[in-house]
Write a structure and sequence with these properties.
alpha+beta, 5-stranded antiparallel sheet, 4-stranded antiparallel sheet, 11 strands, globular
Length: 503
């Protein structure tokens, strides 16, 4: 299908394209997905079959997760050209280092973290939303045909469906089970092979060190490098979009504006809140007892990888500690049909799709979630920039007025109050502008080199659906560019104001 009419400015000669082999069963590789780091790891930190005679690591014997973390970090090093250094993945290692390995074994650990607001008597624990299902129509066919009424209009709900919320020990146990069946489709959208899951705690789906350790321990060794790079980008709050072979990935950092001091990330990194919350500069005259406005760091990340279009998985990490998606714990609640099957909504997409009509095509699922999460990030950025711009305009118009409204030279007091206010504003403007710039550059790189992964070459109806998602994403990118321009213009103005203050 000719794509030039829709994306002529973005589609350039492709560096990557979706390989035809993914539309054919790669059953000889399925068994690799049922191996896990914890079950393949030896006590000396090597994997089977490197040292088959060495004893296996036993979870109950571990004092901490250090051997798991180190083996995970060192996975698939490339000889002397890829040596291990102290600084490799240092933020991720510090974050994982605070995990309590006992949280994978026992229910009700004191060190675990509750989702929501528990009664005082309740134990606190991580919760995972899990969606695991097989496509009955995948059958024993050797190739996939997606552009048909069956998948476009009313996709099958699936068989052997498990849609549930699991505490971390049950989730960990589930991931260790061997679940790949050679002749059945597995729909995977979530944490780890063959599962859909979003780690959640404290009214949000923020993945904790404990939950990430569960992923580290249960990922297939063949996929450890992919997961390691994904978690590193998420923890470090990097902007990234990628579509390399069967690895589709995005990371979208943004800031969320909320009113009140009570919103704080309870996860810690080096004894500080993992994601930071700061008050918005230049508050207008507040009424008595009126709460301040704070902007909160946030990140939405998703990784989709697989063996072929029958067997694939998604990891989705969403920061919501500041109060977004307040009903995320009920995503999997829903009505029951005549057979007693309960349906909810898809969690990684923020509840945008009913689970009774799941998306079985991996590339389509990736685009659907990306479009929804870009909408979320754009809305948060828009609210933040517009409120901040209103404050900046008000300050510019009133900062050098006396009570009668008369203008006077922009003179600072002996406490350098205006200089401090303007320095704060300039620093924040630059922080916002640079964060937006990183996201836009990451998208431009992705769009210029890798969007051709989503060119079907045939199947007009399905291709039209996919390019509809991409057009939606491009619309959000355009809005973000406009917001970046607003920030840049105000940054230049307030730099001049700061430089013009006299003491």
């Amino acid at each position: 299908m000719d794509m030039s009419h829709l994306s002529s400015r973005e589609i350039k000669p492709s560096l990557h394209s979706w390989e035809n082999k993914f539309a054919r069963r790669q059953s000889k590789f399925y068994h690799t997905q049922d191996k896990t780091v914890i079950d393949e790891l030896r006590v000396d930190g090597t994997f089977i079959p490197s040292n088959p005679d060495r004893p296996r690591v036993q979870l109950q014997d571990l004092r901490d997760g250090s051997i798991l973390i180190e083996a995970f970090m060192q996975s698939r090093r490339i000889g002397n050209l890829d040596p291990s250094t102290l600084f490799d993945f240092c933020i991720l290692k510090d974050f994982l280092g605070s995990a309590d390995v006992r949280a994978l074994q026992q229910r009700g650990q004191d060190t675990a973290v509750w989702i929501g607001t528990p009664p005082e008597s309740c134990a606190r624990t991580d919760i995972v939303l899990l969606d695991d299902r097989h496509d009955p129509n995948g059958g024993t066919s050797a190739s996939r045909v997606w552009d048909c009424e069956e998948y476009l209009e009313r996709p099958p709900r699936g068989e052997n469906i498990l849609v549930t919320a699991l505490e971390l020990p049950e989730f960990f146990s589930r991931l260790r089970k061997k679940v790949v069946l050679l002749l059945e489709q597995h729909l995977h959208s979530g944490f780890r092979n063959h599962h859909k899951a979003v780690v959640q705690k404290e009214e949000q789906s923020d993945p904790s060190p404990n939950s990430m350790l569960a992923l580290v321990a249960t990922v297939a060794p063949a996929n450890a490098t992919v997961l390691r790079d994904f978690l590193d980008r998420h923890v470090a709050s990097r902007a990234y979009f990628g579509a390399s072979t069967f690895e589709l990935e995005f990371h979208i950092p943004f800031f969320s504006l909320r009113r009140g001091r009570g919103l704080k990330d309870l996860r810690l990194l080096n004894d500080q809140p993992f994601r930071k919350s700061r008050s918005l500069p230049l508050p207008r005259n507040q009424k008595k007892n009126e709460e301040e406005d704070f902007f909160h760091e946030a990140q939405v990340s998703m990784l989709l990888y697989g063996i072929d279009e029958w067997v694939w998985t998604v990891y989705c990490c969403v920061d919501t500690y500041f109060g977004t998606e307040p009903d995320h714990r009920t995503y999997h609640d829903g009505f029951e049909d005549d057979l007693g099957m309960s349906y909810g909504v898809d969690a990684p997409s923020g509840g945008s799709r009913e689970l009774r009509f799941p998306t079985w095509n991996p590339r389509e699922y990736f685009l659907m979630v990306l479009a929804r999460r870009m909408m979320q990030a754009t809305r948060e950025w828009t609210n933040l920039v517009h409120v901040f711009e209103e404050r900046l305009i008000h300050y510019e118009e009133t900062a050098n007025e006396d009570e009668s409204g008369m203008k006077f030279p922009f003179v600072d007091d002996r406490f350098l109050s205006k200089t401090k206010q303007l320095t704060w504003a300039v620093s924040t403007l630059q922080h916002f502008r640079d964060s937006l710039a990183r996201t836009l550059v990451a998208w431009d790189n992705f769009a210029s080199a890798e969007l051709d992964q989503f060119n079907l070459g045939s199947g007009e109806a399905l291709q039209s659906l996919w390019w509809g998602y991409i057009a939606e994403i491009r619309g959000h990118i355009s809005s973000l560019r406009s917001l970046q321009l607003v920030l840049t213009q105000n940054l230049e103005l307030f730099k001049e104001m700061k430089n013009g203050v006299s003491s």
